[in-house]
Amino acid sequence: MSDHAHSGLPGWSLAWSDEFDGAAGSPPDPAIWQPEIGGHGWGNDELQYYSDSSENAALDGAGNLAVVVRRVDPELRGRFDGCEYSSARLVSKDRAAFSYGLVQARIRLPPGRGIWPAFWMLGRNIDEVGWPRCGEIDVMENFGKDPTVVHGTVHGPGYSGAGGITASYRADAGLADDFHVYAVHWEPDRIRWYLDHRLYATVTPDDLHGHPWVFDHEFYFLLNVAVGGTFSTDPDPSAAFPQAMLVDYIRVHERSS
Length: 257
Description:
The chain is an all-beta fold.
């Protein structure tokens, strides 16, 4: 990548990125991303089946990763655990993990009531300590209820699920209308959330009501689009499918020494 891609961030250097460049229809880099598969509701009574098909996650040939939600043909639902929708959930677990820095993703969200896109991070020690003790940092979520609102959240022991420490920001226009940059600046005792370089939330250990801060180790990335579920809503019957979340890049910057 050329210097101009991050020259707007004085004091930072690019440590890692995925620019999602490649031929249309090809899978995201398997050295980084692996699909998680299944249709069991994912703890939130979600309606989608996550597949490993390029129909649900592939490069678009224009420099983006497309994570695509489709309505499943009723006659084919047996192949998708009976689920009405198919989508994808991609994780960099055991392939790409980081601690601290400025994490940015330029994303165009999918529109539609009940469509729940997310870019988030989990502690890579999840297999040893479980969730939520591993920690979770949600960089971007839109619950498919209001097209202008982005949510940033942390989950940990004593503040998980509906008890997560969360904040939201209302943009001037629908987030599916264009690409936006969703970011966290993650430090040892502070995590800050940004939409298009505008700070909208900060969490420190003092905000956790005495519960442990579990964000001082490596985390890996997750990209997914859910449908419905506890925090979202059922899709409107008029909702159009397919819908795609387009990811232009994910970049991790570290402080220049």
